[in-house]
Amino acid sequence: MWSYTLALLPYATSLGLIFLGSVLLHRLYLHPLAHIPGPPLAKVTYLFEWYYDLVLSGQFTFHLKSLHDKYGPVIRINPNEVHIHDPDFYDEVNNQTNSPTDKPAQVAEVFGPYPATIGTQSHDLHRIRRSALNPFFSKKSVVQLVPVMQCPIQIMCQRLRDASATGAVLNVKYLFAAVTLDIINDYCFARDPVYILQPDFGRKGFDDVDSFLQVSLLNIHLPWLMRFTYSLPDSVNKTLAPAMADILDFRRDLSRQVEAIRGGQDRSHEGAGHRTVFHELLESKLPPDELKPDRLRDEAFSVMTAGSGTTAMVLRSATYHIAANPAIQQKLHAELCAAIPDPAQTSSLTDLEQLPYLAAVINEALRLCGPVTHRIGRQFPGRSLCCAGYLIPAGSTVNMTPYLIHMDEGIFPAPQEFRPARWLSGDKRLKKYLVAFNRGPRSCLGLNLARAELVLVLAAVFRQFNFDVSGVSRKRDIDMTRDYILGAAAPNSPGILVKVLEC
Ligand code: HEM
């Protein structure tokens, strides 16, 4: 038996080598993307990308810039994907309504097999799911939601007042995460504020989400991993990855809440005084398959997580940059004092949105600290693209990275500097290049809500307070050092520890 096996070994090895050689030759010379420039190693193997994303931990996004400097605006980043860095080509990839746009499978399933709007591959199914959610997040709906937002914002201001009175050090990373999660929790499920009232703002849950995002980067490259993980019982997952425990509990709790609404046990929306997403979604005209428990659980998970962590990241970075730049803080404070003479009173969202300096601060925060740092991938089954003379055949995966556009020195000089004034220069072109929410049919569902939260929270905070940020290190605590889908601070960052000053 052994002698047969040994005799066959050279044949098997030769066959293996011939197969490998053919794959390499195909990828280099015959593949539909063979003509696209890029590092030879990236053309033939995924290992190139894995090295930067997995071995060096979330570094590929930074490396992309040097690849584009070397190979031009259109490059091949792995055997089957193209990356484009051409800010003027952004709408061509992301803002098309005249042809179907799919999401590549590994990006759609980044958080696991995930039948939420954000995790939907197919264009047509995405339209169905997205249309059901759109009405909740229109500008009009968000304006009606302002009183809901004001409740946790007022509690947040009281927490800041208390910290200022006692001199306590506050971690604003968790403060802002709590306030945004309370807002979306109320909108989705008619729940009173919870997190903003907790002494540590519910820190552990937010830290677990950070760990979950790190795992999700692994999942983009090895999509079977999360599929396998979710097929295991929760108890096994909790033992293998303790950080998953809170995430799994959170998911199960969301499922319980949705089912309690469906079963009629949860009628909290009746006294809420505002519409709530999941009570209405359950009564919507979505087809029955779309209303199944797992589908709505995952939709809830996506809206709750996308609807809190992202805005909180912009709030905390903006807070640091404003407080660290006295001239900016003073200018903003002066504008807010004129608009809100009595800080005990709140101004309308519409009035606050008209304040030019506040708007400039928010645009600059979205540019410099846009939370979604990973490349955004799309597929066009029926449309080929032509960029910089390169034909990209229909069906290819095409990526673009908002972070690289926001850091483009040709558009935003000194891109690493927080300069709200650049938005007041009268250069109307700049807005075209602010793509923190992406554009087009798959752009951010919560854009209006996020912008309203940024306006209301920053106006309330900087009308009344300033911060001693001498204990914060920009390099360690604020700037993205690793791209885990959302930008992550350095591993040794304690959060954003500040002293609150009343002004
Ligand atoms: C400053 C805050 C925010 C930023 C910068 C942001 C950014 C983004 C980006 C870039 C995308 C596109 C992702 C992709 O194409 O794969 C996206 C999608 C999404 N965002 Fe946001 N987001 C923010 C806040 C919110 C909020 C408050 C919600 C609450 C509802 C939300 C819910 C979603 C959902 C559900 C999607 C998926 C949309 C779809 O696939 O149709 N986001 N967001």
Q: Can you tell me the residue ranges where pLDDT is under 50 for at least 5 consecutive residues?
A: none
Percent range for β-strand residues: 5-15%
What is the average per-residue confidence, as pLDDT, rounded to a whole number? 93
Helix content: 40-55%
Which class do the helix and strand fractions yield? alpha+beta
Domain module tally: 2
CATH topology of the largest domain: Cytochrome p450
Reading side by side through the largest sheet, how are the strands ordered? 1-2-7-4
Per CATH, which architecture of the largest domain?
Orthogonal Bundle
**Count the helices. How many?**
24
Main sheet: strands, sense, barrel: 4 strands, mixed
Rg, Cα atoms, Å: 24 Å
Ligand inventory reads: protoporphyrin IX containing FE
Q: What oligomeric state is this?
A: single chain
CATH class of the largest domain: Mainly Alpha
Gap from first CA to last CA: 86 Å
Instruction: Report the principal-axis shape.
Output: globular
Q: Count all strands and give the number.
A: 11
**Looking at this structure, what is the CATH superfamily of the largest domain?**
Cytochrome P450
Family: Belongs to the cytochrome P450 family.
Protein name: Putative benzoate 4-monooxygenase cytochrome P450
Pfam family, one: p450
Keywords: Heme, Iron, Membrane, Metal-binding, Monooxygenase, Oxidoreductase, Transmembrane, Transmembrane helix
